[in-house]
Protein 1
Amino acid sequence: MKVWNLLIVGAGPAGLNAAIAAAGEGLKVKIIDEFNRIGGRLLGQLHQEPNGEWWNGIDVANRLHEKAITLGVKIESGVSVYDLEQSEFGWKVYTSEGMEKTEKLLLATGATEVPTPIPGWTIPGVMSIGAAQVMGNVHRVKPGNTCVIIGANVLSIAIANELRLCGVEVKEIVISQPNSSLTHSGTPEKVMESLLQLTHLAPSVLLRQAGRVAKYIHPSLAVKFYPKNGMNILDIPIKIKTAATEIIGDKKVKGVKTVNIRSNGEIIPNTERITEADFVCIAGGLAPLPELAALTSCEFKFVHELGGHIPLHSERMETNEPNLFVAGNITGVESAKVAMAQGTVAGLTIASEIKGNKKHSDSAIEEALLTVRKEREEALIQFQPNIARARELIYQQFELDWKAESPKRSIS
Amino acid sequence: MAGEKTIVCRCEEVTLETIVDTIEQYSCSSREVKLRTRAGMGYCGGRTCRNVIDRIVAATNGEPIKDELQLSYRSPIRPATFEVLGGGHENES
Amino acid sequence: MRMRVDHHPVLGKQTDRKQVTIFFNGKPYDAYEGDTIASAMMAQGVYALRQHEVSGNARGVYCNIGHCYECRVKVEDRKVVRACLTTVYHGMEIDSLSGFSEGNE
Ligand code: FES
């Protein structure tokens, strides 16, 4: 049975670019992904860049896919991974299509959505915001004609606009139940604070408008003067002083019960009402999906800025586990462009370990690292403030824990 | 708010109330909550609610979320049929 | 009900796909090649795909990318798959789990 030089789990922006970089250095590479199309989260993405051009994730995914194929990368979709095992040659990877052998393993499994549970959220027709995005942009199916989105953040506002382009009437974006351990976006003031931190970097003119009102004033004031009925952005009312308390329906969703709340999250009595909708989206944000790494003895860190638990890793995308690498949102939630740049770093690092041509590869890796930093700085969608600093700390931690006294890794 | 009866773990239909009661009664970690209530133990392997349970535990116990993955994963990560585990091709995709 | 986005202001039009027929709980539904079971059923306004095995509550697509397993259905009376990851083909027979029989509503 064939032993790959590199097996990649996840055919999103990070996995595809890693494959392209590694295959470009002559490695035998295979990518597997459980979705039935290639591109991962790229597939759903559709937003306008500051220069007015559209970032069409499907086009980007197709381009990367073709390039990888041209370089001889083997790509299989619809394949799930069940288990990983260290072996004398590297890794055994157990999949729904049998076992794969590989010297190096790259986990590029991306992120998962974090829900904000609310009564009624298991009713059919209630879905994560990403689910609606994929339905509309990838499968070209409207989940319904009207919708309510629960959770006001950059991602939900961007996807609201995408749904609008699909012909969906987004009736309102409201916030999730305040003062609950189920949410951490919290009160209108906190929501405003995070929107303000983010909107100056947010995608398209659309989102910058969200920050327009309050860019130069304090969040608490901005909330105070925030209109009770919300602010319309391209016909989508964003109501950060309205909170969802329950989703109603039985075999099919009927609508959302909401109340008005004060800036501190207090409910204003007698303001309960129901907004009817064909479907309801829950937008609680993203978190890295590290489950496969958790099958190994990889060290983990919880880093709020990066979205949750991540495998500890170096800037060159190594983990403490020999022959195991990570790239993309599994290392922290960031934009697709950052993930792509990280993929290149991982691909080159792995090629360098296998080929041992350190001089050539070191300069290429340094260059790739510069791209990561540049993309991070210019990112339109900044999921959290202070990402760069949180990253630095992780890299330092990795050096401390795994490089200082244990020279077992061949490259540094 | 009507939060108490909210289902947190969709697979096992475990409510916020059950989770919080369990944390308070046993002052326990996410891993223990999982074993006691089955929250995060269902078909999806805790992928949907793991982050939420971590938050609830942290908020209830008043401590930060730990570095270790508290809901430890055990293979197989995806529920697999016996054929797949035996190397056959009859797969749960 | 038909909820297709045939024309999209940015992504362009998508009208040239081959139509197939699939069966959900014995009832025929139109679908397109390339659809997942989940997208085909949602395009027909069918949200409930299964019943919770204990409470019997109706469940449908939640994450749409294979993470949550809420969309499990039985195909050809043989294997359980995630509807959101599984591509349809002409004549595919899909059944709800837990003896759920009514596709619509
Ligand atoms: S909808 Fe979540 S796995 Fe299919």
Protein 2
Amino acid sequence: MDVRLTIDGHEAKAPKDMSLLDVVRRVGGEIPALCHHEGIAPIAACRLCLVEVRRPGRGEAVLTTSCDYPVSEGLEVVTASPRIRRHRAMNLQLLLPYAPDAPALHEIAESLGVTAPLFAPVTGAPLPGCILCELCVRVCAALGYHALAAIGRGDHKRVGPPFGRSVATACVGCGACHEVCPTGCIAMEDTATTRRIWGRELELFTCRRCGKPFTTVAHRTVMVARGDIPAESCDLCETCRSRDYARRLAPVR
Amino acid sequence: MAAKITSPDQLKALAEAAKAGLNVRQGRKETQVTVHMGTCGIAAGARGVLASFMAEMGEAGVSDVSLHQTGCAGLCEEEPMATVTHADGTMYRYGLLDEAKVREIVQKHLLGGEPVTAYLIEA
Amino acid sequence: MTMTASRTHFLVCTGGGCIASGSLEVSQAVRAELEKRDLAGEVDVVETGCLGPCVRGPVALVYPDGVFYQNVHVEDVPEIVEEHLLKGRVVERLVSHAPGTDKTQAEMTDIPFFNRQVKIVLRNCGIIDPLDIGEYIARDGYQALAKVVTEMTPEQVVEEVLASGLRGRGGAGFPTGMKWRFAQQQGSDVKYMLCNADEGDPGAFMDRSVLEGDPHSLIEGMIIGAYAIGAHQGYVYVRAEYPLAVERLEHALNQAREYGLLGKDILGSGFDFDLEIRMGSGAFVCGEETALMTSIEGHRGEPRPRPPFPAVSGLWGKPSVLNNVETFANIAPIILKGAEWYASTGTEKSKGTKVFALGGNVQHTGLVEVPIGMQLGELIYDVGGGIPNGKTYKAAQLGGPSGGCIPREHLNVPVDYATLQELGAIMGSGGVIVMDEDTCMVDIARFFLEFTQEESCGKCTPCRVGTKRMLEIVERICNGEGEEGDIERLIALGETISQTALCGLGQTAPNPVLSTIRHFRHEYEAHIKDKYCEAGVCSSLFKARCSNACPANVNIPGFVSLVAEGRYDEALRFHRERNPLASICARVCFHPCERKCMRATLDGPLAIRQVKRFMVEQETTPQLPEIRENAENARRKVAIVGSGPAGLSAAYFLARLGYKPVVFEAEPKAGGMLVQAIPAYRLPRKELAREVAMIEGMGVHFEYGKALGRDFTLQSLRDEGYEAVFVAVGAPRGMGIGVPGEDGPGVYDGLSFLKDYNLHGTARVGTNVAVIGGGNAAIDAARTAIRLGAESVKILYRRTRAEMPAWSEEIDAADLEGIEIMTLVAPEEILRDAEGNVTGVRCTRMALGDYDRSGRRQPVAGHDPAFVVEADTVIAAIGQKLDAAAVLDGTPIELDRRGYLAADRKTGRTSVDWVFTGGDAMTGPSSVVEAIGAGERAAAGIDELLTGANHAFWRRDIEPPTAFDPDADPVPVERHTIEELPVAQRVKSFDEVELGWAAEVALAEAKRCLRCDYGKYHAEG
């Protein structure tokens, strides 16, 4: 069921309960966010996607995060008031010292007119560059591995292998965490035959067809076991697999 | 192991029964019996008198009178003694008490509202 | 044998606090002693929950007498049993006393701490044995549940709770009935009733006390709630740090199950509900409702976004209601006695009572329950017994680390949700931390922020990082490294955190900082700009608390330790580095240093003033510190108007920089108030003359009989070539009483009276003297009057003795000399006979009303009829002021709101750049040592104006050249007393009242100094 809402004065339609952030982005609006991924449930941690919303019949507009805000009929949304920008800027200022070199943060800084950092870069962080968006932990859990966890509280909080171990024993080396990390702080190094990630060294698996290594042996084993895709497809790299599919589709055409 | 209470009436009955045990904790009542427990009083048997009041009041279910002790009243020859005080400040001093007299005072004075003049100390 | 109820119940508090101080041992000892005395059958010993006054534990209560015993220890037990339990005689040494008197308050109903409380939540706490469900039932326990399941629909229950106006007592204050209604309306088979017993605020133990003292009141409230919303399973989330609470709750749950009050078919009604305990590991964030639910589910205790609200989707995605312990404990009485009854307590918008944990600098720390809307002052002073150790109230922190502070100008406010919020605090869960003058508000903000910062779960940016950055700034300020702009940075950070943090913990975390900035911004500024911590807490900012408190910054450990080594001349020079008037201050200083002395925590503050007295008595030739001759400065003309302590001090410090200032004095003698107002029995005139002569000897010229505004003006000085003028004329104009009959013979203004005697010897008094006022001038006038032969001297003061501004030593001395101090008395009229002679003062009785801005209770007219105090002489000493117009004579110097000369606090410079001021003319009537400090600042300011640089070379901290062994343990030595002239002798003369010390006493006293400054000089480099 679709609901009608206005975004910065423009009318829009969206499925009820869809995340406001996704709705705004779909109609071309811009809201910064660092902990959001359309495919993963929001945790509203970075507090950059602030907007002001007013529900019909309610008095004042309230400041809220948009990633976890379900849209409803008659919602009035403002995406960039001075108040919104001020608080976004301060929260960005709070994150900057942890990832002073990350392009994603610089881009947002520029859009908010933040030029000079308020706080000095943080040194000695357990995972330099990490801003604790927890996308890595969440994507890993969503994929069913649970190889990563948030550890510690407050300023001591960090992400990594559970219980503070140095090696993520449940990691199969799929690389999804590396992929989603907004600051690129998760190290993943491939040699000709092995992949190093989260303290593990995993043997690479080469494509049956083209001979290119495309994932780890451990990851391929899980893929085969889960059976989401035909076992023989698990042995092909993405390019070869696509070609394979394309070939199979050909007769229909 | 207590039996389960299966109805509000059972609970009410239980509460009524339990109330007597906590009566003392309601503090001073409007009518108070005070047994004089100076050394002289104790020597003359005040402890027995106190115990008698406790037993008689308990048995008779007197719940609107509180039982206290105090020191010597200065009339050592009248010991054991007890004073009954009412809300309006009137006081009745009983002297040379024993178990039987206590029973009578509890019955006639505390329950019946009539002081037992025979045991009162002449002021 | 018939079962006989015991005649006496001996209730021993076994709340956590009393157990810690030994109540279980006391209870055992009482049982043993009763057994021994053959009283076991007559006296019941009952171990109850918390009675409230935890600081006085172990506490006990004897019924039916209602006698309350405190600080009861095992060794007191035989006496209590023999005297009270057998003979009915109260053991007076173990009962409470009316504050400041010997009057005992044995019975609970006599004690303000108890009799101002209204107990709904704590109705059974301290009265019943929490392990005995029978006692709960005896006090109408579970009757509300019976009523609900037989007579009421769930809708009616919700209506009743809604109508009662009960709001959640956990902190946010959301209407409980509303929460219940939302959950009730959810169409789900599975719902949960949850209790938050994860009490985590520092100093809060309201919920723990209910769990420990009356667990069934919580259980009953939860079952009723479950019935209302349609839940069949509940959880109590208790922190594992509350083992006793968990144990007693577990016990109570088992009993309730046995009795069929929990489980299937409760009371035969067909309603099923059961309860389980879930233990939390003490993370503060788990007090946040969504984090608590996440934790029960077995996940990391982090909050989750709302919406969806728990009433819709809570525990395991099912509709859930979470209330705290205190909220649930209110439910049974509301159901049983009705919403209307409940709503009759409290205020228009906040109904019922609130339990508070009083802590910090308050006489009666402990647990209290009072009607919502009670005045804060009443809560702190009447229930709490006020501030201990003669200190003054500074602020109270309400709402713990999520709340804010309320300063003394708001002691009148009602403690309710809306009012507290307006003032930047919150009701919170009920923690009230009272803070006295020795509390630094920046340090307090740091403390709370450190707590929340540590307890932040770290999920969202503003809370995880923002609080850390705020803490760094506040720590920097406390360490003396605060920077311009820090306050603004804190406010900006605080606003973003409050506005954008994910949960309540983060949103409220900046409150302690924002609220202390709001009410105590000047303390932040003093830390940042002046590197000064007024309370003497931030130890990086000073060497020793005594010197920090001294308005003249005298190096007290320095001169005291030199005295201790018998190096008197050096000691005196050390003193005069910062304060020339050592002998004068040895007599009349009100010694703020002693108030901050750390030795007070051991056995008593050091008698600093008396050590000084001994030191100056050893002076044979004037001991002067370094003087820097300077030919250029010597040529510059600098005028000082007024020769009081401010003027003398400025002259002295200017002379040390090589100036040759001229002091203009209206009277024929130097000293200002020192000579005009302070009587000789306090300050012998030769002592004053000696130090004036010393200053004169440094090249200062005195011109007597020259009054500003009469003999010269500021402009005329300027015209004569004076480059700078220091106006230190004091505040010498007495204020009138403003009542009929005031004008005419027989009525004097206090200052004129003192001056007439001190300067001219002309003051006369009759036989009956009435002095009106409560300050030092009033006491001086009264004591002078008695020395002048008055037969009866009375002081009439409109407040109570505790509020008198005069120093307590002075008041005590007046008392001893036979002066009658009548308090709560205000004059209405001075009565005169036909000839116009004064016959008396018609007075009204006053009563103490609301608190004023200074935190003192204001006198208001009482209802008693007026009465007459007979007198033939009336001296009005109610205050002094500055007659600025006469002084300025057209020179356009700005005045402050009260009519004193406005000036920069650090230099004394006024709006006219060559005019400086200090002392009473700038601050209003204040102390000698304040004036000395102001004189020093003005001297440095004048020099800076004339030379363009600061040359105050004496301001460096010099390490005392004395020996000290930091490893030696301090030997307990009581403060040495000061001998005085016998009363009979002193009221007949103006001889000095205080006597000096012999060398051995003085040295022993000086050696008591703990040398707080030791080891703190190296940082200077």
